[in-house]
């Protein structure tokens, strides 16, 4: 059998496709925001599941330092406000017993 004959029986080569960043971001949103599994998204978009995972890693942005700092401050404020609330509850109960 010649090379030409064996090549004609093999599967046709799939052409390499390229995707826009918008397409990739929408695919990632389907996983991260809409709750679909990567495999489901890959099947529906006719792409390899590994691509979905790679796009997710590429386009998922880690929290910035300013967001982390703000989160820390907000947690401290919540803690302080809870303490104030608890003190006021105890004071209210104390003064209610005196009367």
Automatic annotation (TrEMBL):
A single GO molecular function term of this UniProt record: transposase activity
A Pfam family that the UniProt record links to this protein: HTH_Tnp_1
Origin: domain of life: Bacteria
InterPro entries documented for this protein: Homeodomain-like_sf, RD_transcriptional_regulator, Transposase_8
Coiled-coil regions listed: 64-91
Keywords: Coiled coil
GO terms, biological process: DNA transposition
Protein name, UniProt field: Transposase
